[in-house]
Amino acid sequence: MGSALSSDAVMGSGQLQREHTSGMSRGLTLLFAIAGGAAVGNLYWAGPLLSDIGESLDVSDGQAGLLVTVTQIGYAVGIFLVVPLGDTVNRRRLIPSIMLCSAAALVACAAAPNFAVLLVALAALGLTTVSAQLLTPLAGDLARDEQRGRVLGTVVSGLIIGILLSRTVSGFVADAFGWRAIYLAAAVLMTLLAIVLIVVLPTAPERPAIGYRRLLLSVFGAVRQHKTVRVTMIIGMAAFAVFTMFWTGLTFLLSSPPFSYSVNQIGLVGLVGLAGAVAARRAGALYDRGLSVPATGIALVLTLVALAFAGFGAQSIVVIIGSVLLFDVAIQMVNILNQTRILSIDPTARSRLNTAFVTVNFVGGAFGSALAGILWQVGGWSALVWGAAALIVSASAVWLGYRGLLTGTVESAAAKG
Q: Buried (b) or exposed (e) across 105-127, using 16+ Cβ within 10 A?
């Protein structure tokens, strides 16, 4: 499998290097960021609305929690089954088609007459909301070598902003118009973005055809072939686990005394994370300057500092807000630098490598969410912060042990460019 993948890379790399020499304009980069953020936000509309949906459809809060689960399961399946197609199928047709399917699933969610239908519709939504993970490697293909880090930093930041905004927007729209309204609004937005992308996406040369089964198996081959990918995925998985731990635990903290905030108030605190995501957008430029590896180490240290402040200042909302800001800047730096590094390794397998990266991050995120609940029950906020710090220390140890390998990979990618 590894030799077959290498053969594909040899045949296709020269052609890919000649494609799209004009690079990514600022306008196209911004459009990718908006479209990706809107797509990934579809995964999180239900989060703040579970009680409202449960009451509307006459199910318990426990049953309503299954809505989030089936959406995430659908997303994981879509990541593995759909995203690798980006390495072989014409993405000018594939991405808008997936977005239109997502719009149809959103309409089904809004019109769901009962809980069972809504479960099925949300599973379909998760399956079809993977266009963000097709846009990211496409941005890596379209960008020139010297701008790839900045472009990917902007696009990935758009995804993070979409995640953070979706929870807040969902709550406010539901308060004003009911929970079904957010799904209708999202369907309209996805349809408009699909139409725009049909018009503006460039026509790419045909790629080598790969059988679907072989394509899926080659995801594992791409990971086995590149040790740098495996190391980066371990660091990324730990960082994303800490990301979900922190934000899950923050909800527990702010909804408890002495804060006792409402859902909307917690959502407003979460908006502080937007500033962090915007600031971290510049992290991609550090890759372009050859500073990816040291910047990753610095970001891991800053994450530890943010966790320390959050742990010691748990009684002060001012300290918590400052910690949220620093935490988001640092953790998004790690995420952006990791994803840019992986998407620069093999131009012919960017979608497959992105599949592996996002899937492992998803596993880390699920682990972090589960661990947050356990640690909160065991020792509250302090236990949760200590657990998150332990994961970051572990990721830092991996970074320290393999920084030479990571540096060599970055230099090799720059030399090929």
A: bbbbbbebeebeebbbbbbbbbb
- Residue 210 phi/psi, 5° resolution? -130, 130
3-state secondary structure 173-188: HHHHHCHHHHHHHHHH
Over residues 57-108, the pLDDT tens digits come to 988 867 787 887 788 888 988 999 999 999 888 888 999 999 999 999 999 9
Coil, helix or strand for 104?
helix
- Distance, in Å, from the CA atom of 42 to the CA atom of 61, rounded to the nearest integer, reads 21
- For tokens 């902003």, the residue is 161
DSSP code for 87? G
Q: Are 314 and 308 in contact (CB under 8 A)?
A: no
Residue 182: both structure tokens together: 């957010």
pLDDT digit string, tens, across residues 85-98: 998 888 889 999 99
250: Cα within 13 Å, side-chain hemisphere: 30
CA distance readout (Å), 5 to 56, 80, 230 = 51, 17, 17
Phi-psi region of 380 (alpha: psi -120 to 50; beta: other; left: phi over 0): left
For residue 94, the one-letter residue type is L
Distance between CA 29 and CA 100 in Å, rounded?
21
What is the distance of C-alpha 75 from the center of its chain? 11
The string of pLDDT tens digits covering residues 16-34 is 444 445 689 999 999 999 9
Residue keyed to tokens 């730990």: 238
Q: Which pLDDT value is given to residue 414?
A: 57
